[in-house]
Amino acid sequence: MLTALYSVGSVAGADLWMKVVLLTSLAYFLICFSFRRSRSGRGVLTVLMGWLLTELLCDMVWLAWFWPGGAYRNGGLGSAVALLLWPVLLCLAGGIVLWICRTGR
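RESULT FIELD:
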């Protein structure tokens, strides 16, 4: 999300990118908090940590992909594949978080 936010002023289409990131984040939280065990104090912390770790990992990959050396690199349509990393990682994190909340680990 930080990479998308950083790109909003200088990259065409970054505002749409930012909206998709926010909507998928909202969906992640709604799905995770729809389970009762995720709404406990520890469950909320687990859901937030899952989202933050996903955000950190995805931002590092996006920064290396789109901003190598500090300058924006337009990879064309091939770079759109890198944008799919966010929803994939969120789905993976959501599954792990719900498993942790279910087992109580």
